[in-house]
Amino acid sequence: MDVFALFEGRVTDALIASFPELADNRELLGRVVVEPPRDAAHGDLSTNAAMVVAKPLGKNPREVAAAISERFSGDADVASVEIAGPGFINFRLQQSVWHKVLSSIAERGDDFGRADVGQGEKVNVEYVSANPTGPMHVGHTRGAVYGDALASLLAYAGYQVSKEYYINDAGSQVDTLARSAFLRYREALGETIEIPAGFYPGDYLVPVGQALVEEFGNSLLDKPEEAWLAPVKQHVLAAMLELIKADLKKLNIEHDVFFSEKTLHGPGGEIEKTLAWLREEGLIYEGRLDPPKGKLPDDWEDREQTLFRATQFGDDVDRALVKSDGSYTYFAADIAYHRNKVLRGFTTLIDVLGADHAGYAKRIEAAVKAVSGGKASADVRFCQLVKLLRNGEPVKMSKRSGDLVTLADVVEEVGVDATRFMLLFRRNDAPLDFDFALVKEQSKDNPVFYVQYAHARTFSIFRNAARDLPDLDTSDAALAGADLSLLATGDEIELIRLLGSWPRQVAAAARAHEPHRLAFYLHELAAQFHAFWGKGKEDPSLRFVNDDDPKLTLARLALVDGVRRVLGNGLDLLGVSAPQELS
């Protein structure tokens, strides 16, 4: 039962009943929202309905609010309606409504909060997509966790989601990787090597060099680079991709599709086809670009070149597609790749990129508008940098990767749960401090411990009930039959009210592509639950288990079970375990 969606429907019905001329204006009615009031003292629900429709109706918002309010005079679920400020309408609900919410949680179980916001829309979430040149580092980790949690959230909210990894295996960095691996191959054959500047120095290439010896023996030593580069490149790319998959597996991340950039290139490839299509559509022309303002970038060229009409689709400048040497620009490959996604039927394309790609959003959004005829949209999400600390001091770098702390380093030290939750406990576009000491601390200052402890505490309460009231039936059927009208204190209703906002949180987070909202909500729910438990230590009448009142105990256990289910659902969406006990 989604109280907010339920009352949005009722408010819309009240609007149409009062002002029939609004019935066909779905766009206007779609702007009506029901949400918690900013101040909880003002009631349970608040709506902007009167202010949304007042101007089109040519009426005063408070006049409209009065007409809407009158429609709720006989609503059995509404205790009172008040008009506030310029025309907000605040509702106070009967306690029985919140009891129905709690019953709904028990009935729906893991599906409480599951929505059909997406209505089956096909969404492609492309995330991580790190160059296959080494192990995953902590910068990749944040995008990996964000993208994975977002994909889970969207699927839970009714979208048809595909999780994709774009393998950047066509650039010059792959040739450099192959040359670096060839040095390790020579090292494995007994040579003393020096790794030049610009090569990949990490120890992770040592086993690759050894594997090359096992496959080729010393047969590559006397061959020129043009002879050994291709087979070494193929071998090292496969090895790096397996390394990346193994790293992601440590975070329980698995993609549905691994898309190779190489497949876009070559005669008759996707890039060539895409540029031909764009030319037919009149979206490519030969021209010169004005020099950018400020310091000229190294890759700017004052010459006649092939340009995409990106400004026609909202970009700041038109974009070059072909370099002076005749090869394609990175953007040409980007257009072809996103057109490929559109041709596969996706209508929302989400790209999760690192902070170093800031500025890519407009060009990608323009490209998707162009290749889809405006039928698909792109949402480019950037993950800001992660600063690794230990007791407030910067963490030293990893020898294995050469110069970076790896994903494996982080997971090995703090575990999957802490890694995932802490990287989601902040907006993706805000810098994040990750302190190893804090995330391993078992205290209320550690958000992941605090939330998991709340979930474990729900099981502890049930164990205490079994010990103190051994004859009390606490099965799902018994909890479903509990007399919930006994839950009448302000603390009880407040906790149920927060549980009842879970479906709204899921829907809003899915629409906004912001899984961090779920982490924030779970932390708030845990805090409220812990606070309730703490009050029971001071006031025996507020304890969840009351030896002298089995009926009240059963009702409160139904409330505890609701907390358990919502915490469990939320942690599962974030890819974090929900333990029954914490050591």
From TrEMBL:
EC numbers: 6.1.1.19
Record has Metal-binding as a keyword: no
GO molecular function annotations of the record: arginine-tRNA ligase activity
Keyword Protein biosynthesis tagged: yes
Entry-linked SUPFAM superfamilies: Anticodon-binding domain of a subclass of class I aminoacyl-tRNA synthetases (SSF47323), Arginyl-tRNA synthetase (ArgRS), N-terminal 'additional' domain (SSF55190), Nucleotidylyl transferase (SSF52374)
Highest rank taxon of the organism: Bacteria
Main location: cytoplasm
Annotated PROSITE patterns: AA_TRNA_LIGASE_I
Record-linked Pfam families: Arg_tRNA_synt_N, DALR_1, tRNA-synt_1d
SMART domains: Arg_tRNA_synt_N, DALR_1
InterPro entries tied to this protein: aa-tRNA-synth_I_CS, Arg-tRNA-ligase, Arg-tRNA-synth_N, Arg-tRNA-synth_N_sf, ArgRS_core, DALR_anticod-bd, Rossmann-like_a/b/a_fold, tRNAsynth_Ia_anticodon-bd
Enzyme class (EC, first level): ligase
Residue span, Arginyl tRNA synthetase N-terminal domain: 5-93
Domain annotation DALR anticodon binding: ranges: 451-582
Alphabetical list of NCBIfam families matching this protein: argS
Similarity-based family: Belongs to the class-I aminoacyl-tRNA synthetase family.
Protein name: Arginine--tRNA ligase
Organism (species): Pelagibacterium nitratireducens
Organism taxonomic ancestry: Bacteria, Pseudomonadati, Pseudomonadota, Alphaproteobacteria, Hyphomicrobiales
